[in-house]
Write a structure and sequence with these properties.
Elements (H helix, E strand, L loop, with lengths): L1 E5 L7 H14 L4 E7 L18 E5 L2 E4 L3 H12 L7 E8 L11 H11 L4 E6 L3 H4 L6 H17 L11 E6 L9 E4 L11 E6 L5 E6 L12 H6 L2 E7 L6 H11 L3
Parallel strand pairs: 1-2, 1-5, 2-4, 5-6, 6-7, 8-11
Antiparallel strand pairs: 3-4, 7-11, 9-10
Helix pairs in contact: 1-5, 2-3
Amino acid sequence: MRILLTNDDGINAPGLEALEAIATELAGPGGEVWTVAPAFEQSGVAHCISYVHPTLIARLGPRRYAAEGSPADCVLAAIADVLKGNPPDLVLSGVNRGNNSGENVMYSGTIGGAMEAALQGLPAIALSQYMGERTSELDDPFEGARVHGPGLIRQLLDHGDWTSDEDFRLFYNINFPPCDAASVKGVRVAPQGRRHGVRFEVEPYHAPNGRRFMWIMGGSQTAPATPGSDVDANMQDYISVTPMRPDLTCHASLAALRDALEQG
């Protein structure tokens, strides 16, 4: 199996090292693991692409590249340049330092990398490790992902919906809970949720030279969330798996809106 790795925390992130270990186990002795990851941290860029300026890409070692762009740029660079003519069998994005469940999905560069792979017709999975007080006490805060990741990905490859004849191919979002590997209770297939009362905010800041800047501030990651959702599962020490597609249409609203707006 040929596996492509990317992330949004950057080429030197410890989560990427954890993903490399997961991918190496999955690929097996005869497989290949390729990495094309951002040269610098790209958290919060979502599905951004560098459309108006070129992206520098550098080979750092065998099957290892860094690009001065977003995770989606990295996937495009891998397909169109690094692995041109030999596309990967699977794209893994992560392991993100911090969760990408709930509303975080909409901002996540980790999700953006997996989404771009899906748009390119490739099987893709995003992986994130929820962080908290219990993971901060671990020698390896990515322990849950390392231990449970390979087996869960194998299950997804065997049982997930990987059909490619749809307009929008599915990809999968995995979030490991904020606990040690032994405390993980199992897996829950769950929809994307929403933390109640949590919003991103802006905190103004004045530099010593008098210029005004802003810091973007995130909200509580432990706030109560939609029951049965990905966040809810993670907070109960379950791994969440969410099937996703790059289609923001609210299909449940289409019929009523057509009736109201397409008269005559």
